[in-house]
Amino acid sequence: MNRLLISKYNVQGPRYTSYPTVPYWEESLFSDRQWQETVARSIGESNEKEGISLYIHLPFCEQLCTFCACHKRITKQHRFERPYIETVLKEWQLYLELFRENNQKPLLKELHLGGGTPTFFSPDNLRFLLEELFSTVTISEHPEFSFEGHPNNTTYEHLQTLFDLGFTRVSFGVQDYDPVIQQAINRIQPFEQVERVTNQAREIGYKSVSHDLVFGLPFHTWEKMEQTIRKTLALQPDRLAFYSYAHVPWIKGVGQRGFSESDLPKGAEKRTLYENGKLLLEELGYFEIGMDHFALKHDDLYLSMQENRLHRNFMGYTSGKTQLMIGLGMSAISDSWYAFAQNEKSVEDYQFRVEQGELPVFRGHLLTGEDLIVRQQILNIMCRLETSWNREDARLFETIRDQLHELQQDGLIELSEDGLTVTENGRAFIRNIAMAFDKRMLERCPETQLFSSVV
Ligand SMILES: C=Cc1c2[nH]c(c1C)Cc1[nH]c(c(CCC(=O)O)c1C)Cc1[nH]c(c(C)c1CCC(=O)O)Cc1[nH]c(c(C)c1C=C)C2
Ligand SMILES: C[C@H]1O[C@@H](n2cnc3c(N)ncnc32)[C@H](O)[C@@H]1O
Ligand code: SF4
Fold it and tell me: Residues that bind S-adenosyl-L-methionine 1, according to the entry (predicted)?
């Protein structure tokens, strides 16, 4: 790839798991009451028709991986499990009231357990949480239940318990197999562990096993990356996440440390890891899905891309869209389509608020009419690699015509009167293409670092 293009487009940029992105939420225009109103509205409009998605954040990890940008709490104390689960169930009761007020029972379509490390919790405690939850909902005819497992502490019993409760998809954090990298990110994780959990999940009957890989970690070279990809391919995961390492040490609580900036591959060097990696994956039968993801042909993520059903939310890509996504637990983000809300980011603040009988939301954003239009454009770009707008909305995008022309001249998109298609070369710059539509960022350029670098 052209080095000039790489340096031109290697600016900081959001990953667009939401629009507006979190730093552009207008908190002053947001209140808990409005949040509940938009949830009630979405319940009425969509629960019976398409069901809802639930995300449950299980934040504990026994050890800090020093590359990790997730919201987590490091502890070896397993006595925190039960009180945390009880708080999550209390929080759920607060949302259940909104369903009851609207004479509805939640129809559960998607459920994802994320973290942190869901498999930090014992199988018994996970079963308790889920059985309590399931006693309050109707489970959809075609549910999609998934969870994130840490290969080092996912047991056969975890896999069997969750499978019996309806989980059919699991993703394991692999990151990288190289011992020097594992040392630098404080995450020693032998191949044999990943092999064990992958085979056990298959044996039990999981229909999709996914591995998370990250490129651009400290000391990463193509040699190391290739080894990791080849080991991964030996296990044939149905899906793969292939994330660009996001270096965001300024985010509080992230704890990225243990290596220095100069240990990180950057610019063209980092891009090569992605490009070579992509070639190797494609050679061996994987298809790139939107941004960051690859899947084998039989996997539902591939099928939903083919059938234009792909959707993107805070968890990344999903194969089904629900209008309402409720996030439970510390730092979880919810999306009522008309608004976003995020929960308190520390376990203590989260628990305190719920104990007070309040939704533990600490910030959020109500989408304006313009936000909703831009959001749809960005979703189209991220999920379908093309978008178009109607005559009425065209006004909104007149001001970005010059930027779109430039993207076209650089060979990243094909532009028409009322839309665009991302080219093969453009795929690697999809965040830059989405940024052209980001009205809020265009109006107020970030003065400090808010996002990770695009490359
Ligand atoms: C699995 C854990 C999570 C991933 N994303 C989120 C969680 C809980 C949600 C999230 N993470 C960040 C934010 C920004 C706002 C904030 O609370 O500070 C949110 C909503 C921080 C963050 N995480 C990543 C980055 C790059 C940032 C900063 C914002 C940005 O640059 O966009 C990296 C990252 N987090 C997750 C993945 C898969 C990932 C990188 C590929 C998962
Ligand atoms: C949930 C998944 O998110 C990925 N993940 C966590 N932190 C980062 C980061 N800083 N950059 C890129 N990917 C990250 C890991 O691959 C993890 O398994
Ligand atoms: S990568 Fe997973 S186990 Fe490691 S700190 Fe992050 S959430 Fe915890």
Answer: 55, 115, 148, 333
pTM reported for the whole predicted model: 0.95
Q: Are residues 304 and 405 in the same domain?
A: no
Mutate to test the pocket of ligand 2, among 17, 175, 189, 243 (most ligand atoms within 8 A of CB): 243
Q: Is the CB of 214 under 6 A from ligand 3?
A: no
Contact predicate 242/274, CB 8 Å: yes
ipTM rounded to 2 decimals: 0.92
Residues 6+ apart with CB under 8 A from 431: 13, 14, 15, 16, 291, 454
307 with 386, same domain: the answer is no
Cα dist from 308 to 252, 285, 380, whole Å = 37, 20, 10
Instruction: Examine the domain organization and report whether 203 and 111 are in the same domain.
Output: yes
241 and 386, same domain (yes or no): no
Q: Please state the atom number of ligand 2 nearest to the C-alpha of residue 171.
A: 18
Say yes or no: 279 and 211 in one domain.
Answer: yes
How far, in Å, is the centroid of ligand 3 from the Cα of 237?
20
pLDDT in tens, 182-233: 999 999 999 999 999 999 999 999 999 999 999 999 999 999 999 999 999 9
- 384 and 241 in a common domain: no
Domain boundary among 344, 366, 388: 366
